[in-house]
Write a structure and sequence with these properties.
4 copies of one chain form a homotetramer. In chain A, helix 7 packs across helix 13 and helix 8 packs parallel to helix 10. Chain A is built from 13 helices and 14 strands. In chain A, strand 6, helix 7 and strand 7 form a beta-alpha-beta unit. Chain A folds into 2 domains: about 160 residues, Rossmann fold; about 160 residues, Dihydrodipicolinate Reductase, domain 2, CATH 3.30.360. Chain A starts with a strand and ends in a 9-residue tail after the last helix. By secondary structure, chain A is α/β, with parallel strands linked by helices. Chains in contact: A-B, A-C, A-D, B-C, B-D, C-D. The interface between B and C is large, with 44 and 43 residues.
Chain lengths: ~350, ~350, ~350, ~350
């Protein structure tokens, strides 16, 4: 029998990409698309995204725990604001529903890092317990824990891009922490969400580039925790690119000790030997945003400075795929013991 | 002494382009930038558009008739919603201030056409008088009337593009009215205004094209009245182009009687012999959007069908320049008896 | 056993999209990717398109009839210039290999229309025989003939878009032929091919729009023949859109006799009742380019003028999918008696 | 009497922007537009760029020293490949013509840095003498030398962006050289020149981002020499942005010693107190590409890390204006003793 899932937030960009993926997945039944509050209930998913219109209709049904129980939902995907996710997850787990949460609500282990979100949990003790229990949903780092997890915190888009590039090198001891790691990251506009804002207006975003959230982006904590760096060892600067989707991160590493390009390539290749969704490029071959667009790949390439003292790592992914919906599906595959490529 | 002007609505796209033009105009004093309501007063123009920041600051001051009188404002530019323009113009004229209105409020002579705006004038008789008095601000058609006008109704962007291409040919009797004229028009996103909407969100507008307001766009009336066509003799279809600015109109004419390419070119060249801001292209050379971008030109080119029975006219302009702010400045130049190229 | 196919021209845009589709098709073996001349032989497909790189490599092997025979190739896809296709097809058929040709070489039945290509066939009699035999590969019009065809002439991208919108209405007798049908079509830049040219340079194509091949585009003949119009009953104007892919056609029809929106909708829905890859929209709901992007759908919507005298039909598709590679795969599915949705 | 100038290379992107600027400059006569070889002679500038078409024509005349002499050319602008510039400059200077060279031919003082260009000078001794004599044409650094210069080497676009941001801070001793300065730079596609290439094809450049020339871009030497850094103290990584024009450089500095945001702002403001074309932003206000587009400004903003140990400087300019043609005109203004804002 096919797996029964529900998606809350399918009208957002990440939620909709997830909806499309789930609708194609051979082992998943047609998901229940949920609407919360009065906003979208009664409407259909195809009224927001006519591209999936045609023979079938996909109604948005009002969220209720009774409905989830009645439909026997086994896995709930939350593509919701983090406050809402913070509110719904305890109840979902209590009812025996596994959750893949695409928001930032449950990603951080360090309470200092978590402070940027300003959570106001109703039951602080339970929240703290779930903070500890939640598994950071990057299968390349936490495959085993995801398998049995009740709550998977799907990583941030920028964070995935940086962590995939950086972690193998940090673990191999290559990174000089004194100089710190510089992560200059560029993301397409869908990363800013579907709600229209001045900065996402076509006229302001097109033919433009801007840095934002300098020294203060929420994904910083995730990167530090997962890559294994201290707070002052990383600089992460996001930029808004005039493209609909895609992230490219240029990561600058001062090497801690002498290394060869071959050595670095080996470290990356070994680390990702079993990974289905990370592609390591040979030395000097750098990924571009187009290469991973509309796929679930995170592409990692690098180049060493002629003097062997520095490393530039370039990492690309599609922020709505490996950076959000694709990763959520990959997590589902891991949780269910399916092939990680299933449904892609 | 330099001319004293004021601009209401300088924070919108057309208003801002007008502000920049006026600030460079050698015969115009630094304009007064007005804010209405509490919205923007106290802010500066450069806080909305940092590109004009630098040595000087341009404060937005609260609109009041006293202020206009105190500063001796001679010409008021309204880059405002048409309802507001409808409200302010009678008072401005009563106070002896000439107005160039960039909205659709005063463009239409035919009350049937005007119905689409649904005006609710406080003083209907006065409004009717001003509807009659207002001069349609296309200098290529109404240069003499603009010169003495108290109220210049600056044309719509699409309308300018179509009227410039069509009017000489209609007047020359070339147009077969039975089959009608088809105007397939495409505009950049700034034409939809600065306020963020779903359709102007970068992710929805980029990599896309859509027709809108089919058989129902407000500029239709202007085109009919100015080009001299009856209601059922024109089809005008706007499309939203994934570019910040620029309009290209492809206009399909069935010829009423045999004509030669040379003949058509002569008609156009003669019509625009004195025009400073319309460029007529030779037969078979068609303008592109880039050619007139950031200029005040309306470019008109055409191609005749091999059988001599049809004509395709392509007309391009910058919707914020000849389609709005540039035309407003051109109108000012005409009103003041200055060269039409002054300040460009 | 899986079907054995080969692709000549897989490094072009349409050829590459076809390669990706064939590689995913469950009933097709990994295709043979052919290179002709010395150009690309020895290189790999992933060296041109790193996005398909990863675990596998896809070598480009030099084209030879011996190789095709040795590998038991059953279907050959030609994504080649029309001259080359004109040269290769007679030989392929003689060797018992079925061909789906993506060029314009075999699409036209009317020798007058064919003149624009200026073919110089070595064996004119055989070429004439094959011109007659070739089936125009639009399954929505020629499903039965495609099934048994040896040579399928895959339609042009613009042509598909216009024919799908127009044919049902012409056949229903709705179209006033005197005024003619106006087809204002806009295509993304991939339609111009992969070879760099001045007009496809990013700086010239971006922030721009231009009409081209006015009264002289090669797809005109296809449209006339398939939609069933005479030469002077159609105007087709292509425009170059600043987007990578996608076509939107705005089609203007003067109605021959009174009709209702419901009536028109019925005509379209009945015509496409069995079509898997054409989506008919309800009256007043118009497709946009984004809706069919990266799918094989041709979307058709329409709006009637308030006076019931005119019809605007908007048709959208992805020029590399339903306009080229996707249609080729759909044709393959029909030729093999598979579901038309197989492999998508 | 107006200054007599000539431009070789006016059909390229930078050359054309320079042509437009010179044509508007009130103290410069209409420039002579030169063509070399047979390529463009006999054609007109407006045949390449129809946007300047209209009342006047701008013929491209074959380059010859006799012509330059006959016309009394005082200043020659070279927007040519560096090899050609290397060849022509000695002769021009010998003939008493001052040169502003937009290529990289004469920018570098350090012969090690110059090696990347691989010059093959006919008269090596003379070339060496001119290498020493050439003035690096960044008026903000070399105003006095430019005034009397015979040969002004107009800076690279990336280089201008980085040098303007970095030099004041290096000179103030704020930069920790051990960790090095990281310059992550992004440029619009016009920076790659007008000649069509695969990487500048719209379909490859749009919806994409890529790093290139990693650890090996030719502008590196200029930056090192002008900012005053040693070879291993700078990393400069260019990226190709999907926009027509504009550069944004994100520059990462580890501070050598404690500093305050106010202190940094003072350093920048003092350094540029007399600069007409550099705008310093207040702490935390960062420039975006749109702000300086189509102006000659280099915009410099910065943000300090909360711990006061790092500085991120963001610098923006238009690569064809302050990054090429605008800077060339600014240099002309300095050379002639005119206001640096003249003609803009």
């Amino acid at each position: 029998m096919k797996l029964r899932t529900a998606v809350l937030g399918a009208t957002g960009y990440a939620g909709f990409d997830l909806a499309k993926l789930l609708l194609r997945h051979p082992k998943v039944a047609e998901p229940l698309f949920l609407a919360r509050g009065t906003e979208a209930a009664g409407q259909t998913l195809e009224s927001f995204y006519p591209e999936i219109g045609g023979a079938k209709s996909y109604p948005l049904v009002p969220f209720s725990w009774e409905l989830l129980a009645g439909r026997g939902i086994e896995v709930l995907f939350l593509a919701t604001p983090h406050e809402l996710s913070r509110e719904l997850v305890p109840e979902a787990l209590a009812k025996g529903i596994r959750v893949v949460d695409l928001s930032g609500a449950w990603r951080l282990k360090n309470s200092g890092h978590r402070a940027v979100y300003g959570f106001t949990d109703q039951d602080a003790a339970l929240a703290a317990k779930l903070d500890a229990e939640a598994v950071y949903g990057l299968p390349e780092l936490h495959r085993e824990e995801i398998r049995g997890a009740r709550l998977v915190a799907n990583p941030g888009c920028y964070a995935t891009s940086v962590i995939c590039a950086l972690t193998p090198l940090v673990r191999a001891g290559l990174v000089n922490r004194q100089c710190g790691v510089i992560c200059d990251c560029k993301s397409g506009v869908s990363g800013a969400g579907k709600k229209p804002m001045q900065k996402t207006h076509f006229v302001e975003a097109a033919d433009n580039l801007s840095a934002y959230s300098v020294f203060g982006h929420r994904h910083t904590g995730e990167i530090l925790e997962q890559a294994g760096l201290n707070d002052d060892e990383l600089v992460f600067t996001p930029h808004l690119l005039p493209i609909p989707r895609g992230i490219l991160s240029t990561i600058y590493i001062t090497l801690d000790h002498a290394a060869t390009a071959d050595g670095v390539e080996s470290i990356l290749r070994e680390f990702y030997a079993d990974a289905q969704w990370v592609r390591v490029y040979g030395h000097g071959k750098l990924p571009q945003i187009q290469y991973s667009l509309r796929t679930n790949y995170c592409d990692v390439g690098f180049q060493m400075s002629p003097d062997g003292k520095r490393l530039i790592v370039v990492s690309c992914l599609d922020n709505l795929m490996k950076g959000a919906a694709g990763q959520a599906l990959q997590n589902l595959n891991v949780m269910q013991g399916w092939s990680e490529k299933e449904g892609f």
